[in-house]
Write a structure and sequence with these properties.
Number of helices: 13
CATH class: Alpha Beta
Number of domains: 1
Low-confidence stretches: none
Shape: globular
Strand content: 15-25%
Structural class: alpha/beta
Distance between the termini: 75 Å
Helix content: 40-55%
CATH architecture: Alpha-Beta Complex
Oligomer: single chain
Order of helices and strands: HEHEHEHEEHEHEEEHEEHEHHEHHHEEE
Largest sheet: 10 strands, mixed
CATH topology: Spore Coat Polysaccharide Biosynthesis Protein SpsA, Chain A
Radius of gyration: 25 Å
């Protein structure tokens, strides 16, 4: 075979390979564009009139805790709560608020709310505590919640402290029930921008069938805020804070279609839960993990553990409702309610591929193995040690400090 013929054959092969590569690249680009357009078509799914309308006359117990939230209280939160009370009906709502040792004038703002609720005839309990973080950590370190940290000091854990405050906000629920009051839902409100329509849409999540339903919260969109409590349907942390967030396909695909997203746990600004577990013989309450487990350098959000402990979670399900988006500031709220879509084509494209890449190259079980190994070590020390919320745990230790909290 002549050298010229061999050269021609080689050139033809290179041309074929190049053509095949171009065909594959073209097909990939067509698929990628179609994929983005499809997701963009699904977003946003319009909120129907039925979804945004209060169904029936549910009796709602509202619980909220506050610390240094004067700005948002006066800017929007107080008015939003008043509007909600008017929309639900003064006889169908009870509002319980606990404020703890704020540096700003949160107390003054909450007194103003109390007076407005009095005028409306809305039953409420607003507790204003003078006990500051400094007061809490200055006590003699004894009892539950105090541990010896790697800094060589006895320090007060953040999560048991928060759990205690949340449980204080729930105290009127049991007291009112003993007096004959009945409640269908418990609504937990963070210090977020929201409107009554957000609450009604959340109440109607999955046609009202859920153990708990949560909004999505934002401080700096497009990143969502509360990574500590959110776990997908298999109990995994989010791949990243940008859409579509989740590792598990069941949660991710529901989110992409703006359907109720099955999750193991969520909080994310506003949460509504079936009231019955809070009123049972062994009432559901917030908690932290045990101090002995925390000594293994582990921590779990009280807002995740509540779902792990809730007997309704496995039966009725926990859902994130992506149609309900709240913000920790007005700008964030406005951005995630922009039209025609709160996600741009660019954000959809980069989100899809960033999520895929991180799912392909990261191995979640390596991170979770550290947690499981430490839990196993803890169980080996005492065979009575049990923790149902292992999926909530992360490799952290959090303690209270005078101006907030800190990692140690």
């Amino acid at each position: 075979m002549s050298s010229s013929l061999i050269s021609s054959i080689r050139s033809l092969r290179r041309l074929c390979r190049l053509s095949s590569l171009r065909v594959l690249l073209t097909l990939f680009l067509i698929w990628a564009i179609f994929d983005v357009l499809q997701k963009r078509f699904w977003l946003p799914t319009p909120i129907t009139e039925k979804e945004r309308t209060l169904q029936g006359q549910p009796k709602i117990f509202v619980a909220s805790i506050h610390w240094n939230t004067e700005a948002i209280l006066r800017q929007s939160w107080n008015n939003a709560v008043i509007d909600l009370a008017k929309a639900v009906g003064p006889d169908n709502i009870f509002i319980s608020i606990y404020e703890s040792g704020s540096f700003d004038d949160s107390k003054g703002a909450l007194r103003e709310l109390g007076r407005a609720l009095d005028v409306l005839g809305v039953a409420h309990n607003i507790t204003l505590s003078e006990t500051t973080h400094l007061d809490e950590i200055s006590q003699k370190p004894e009892g539950a919640g105090w541990i010896r940290t790697p800094r060589g000091r006895d320090e007060l854990r953040r999560i048991p402290y928060l759990a205690r405050l949340r449980n204080i906000s729930l105290q009127p629920l049991a007291e009112l029930t003993k007096l004959g009051a009945k409640f269908d839902k418990v609504l937990f409100l963070n210090d977020v921008f929201f409107i009554s329509e957000d609450v009604f849409t959340l109440l109607n999540t999955n046609n009202g069938e859920y153990a708990a339903a949560c909004s999505l919260d934002f401080s700096k969109p497009p990143k969502y805020y509360d990574t500590f409590a959110l776990r997908d349907s298999k109990g995994h942390e989010s791949v990243e804070q940008t859409w579509p967030y989740f590792r598990t396909s069941l949660s991710r695909h529901a989110l992409e279609r703006e359907k109720p997203v099955p999750v193991k746990s969520c909080w994310n600004g506003i949460v509504v839960m079936d009231a019955r577990p809070f009123l049972s013989e062994r009432p559901l309450r917030f908690r932290g993990i045990s101090d002995t487990l925390a000594l293994e350098h582990l921590e779990g959000s009280e807002c995740c553990l509540i779902h792990a402990d809730n007997p309704f979670s496995a039966v009725k399900g926990v859902y994130l409702n992506p149609k309900v988006r709240v913000g920790y500031n007005q700008q964030a709220y406005d951005l995630v309610h922009s039209r025609p879509s709160w996600l741009s084509m660019y954000q959809i494209f980069t989100g899809l591929w960033s999520n895929r890449f991180k799912r392909w190259v990261t191995i979640q079980w390596l991170k979770e193995y550290v947690v499981r190994r430490r839990v196993s070590t803890w169980k080996e020390k005492d065979d009575t040690n049990v923790e149902p919320g292992v999926f909530c745990l992360i490799n952290e230790m959090q303690v209270l400090v005078f101006n907030g909290w800190a990692h140690v």
